[in-house]
């Protein structure tokens, strides 16, 4: 369980943090490897160059003292004393701690340590390299068997193996091994190491810092894009949920509209049947009455009967016009919100003869034609209900604008009614609710004793696009 937690915790880190950790480890490892490699190369080069200089100087001093090494298998006492005097005083005496002259079979022909003269040792890698004709050098690596005295000296030593060549043939006839006291060389080598490590570390730091800046910038861009994408996904998810809810609401509204249309048709049929149809039927019956068709009826009686029939037909015509005026909308597409409210209120005043107070906002509001029709029908139906159930007492229409929402309120001071008396199939209120909610608005009814308030609210930005 611990490993998956660590992996998940690592994966949860930003790309910049992951790069800083992994890149830092890789950069430090690369710096150590490159630094060690470059330092080693510089140490070898400095050691080789310094040893070559010393070897050339020593060879120039001792070469004239040596006999023909190809024919001589040992050094006589004269040559040994000359070497002792040369190596024990002057510049060489101060620079060299030890000196040996080797034969190719590993025998020490000469040494300033007389106990080693004539002894035979196995050839080291450096001796083999020198007998092959190449100079060899190493610094403070006193690991050979014959280096006991040098190890006990406790000084920094530059160990040099230089081939002794026959002048006329160039053949290696012996190898001179000497140990130079290298205090200055050690200081120079330390400075070279320090400068090398500083250069490698500085370059690695600059390189890593440059890459880190690029990666940090890229990571910041990726994080910003990821955040924006996540925010957009959240917005799209919320919008999808809203669209789904709206789709369901539209579907329910469509089902309700079908039922409401049937209810409207039934109500119109009932209004025509109970009103104009009855009056026309009454007039038709009176036309067939004896009072009208009988020749014995006096002119005065017939004229009174005809006048009654005409009054019944006139009343039927008025009711038909009233029904038609409620069904046909005025030209409201180009009208403003205040003009729509004024027209609906004026039509109600003319139809009922009641007083309606109108309060509107002076701020202009842009609405779509469907929103304007919805507001007109809302005020028309709400005032009809106020007149029918409240007797037209205290009727008022109030329009408010709050932020991006327009609110229309129709209220009266009638006796009111209980919410329990309003069923879900109530034609007027159900129609108003479906109209308003189909446009994304809200519909509210507030019941009081006395008084009733019906309120609708539409978002002006949404209503402008619908």
From TrEMBL:
The chain crosses the membrane at residues 20-42, 194-216. Its EC number is 2.7.13.3. InterPro entries: HATPase_C_sf (IPR036890), HATPase_dom (IPR003594), Sensor_HK_TwoCompSys (IPR050482), Sig_transdc_His_kin_sub3_dim/P (IPR011712). GO terms for molecular function: phosphorelay sensor kinase activity; protein dimerization activity. Keywords: Coiled coil, Kinase, Membrane, Plasmid, Transferase, Transmembrane, Transmembrane helix, Two-component regulatory system. GO terms for cellular component: membrane. PANTHER family: NITRATE/NITRITE SENSOR PROTEIN NARX-RELATED. This is Sensor histidine kinase protein.
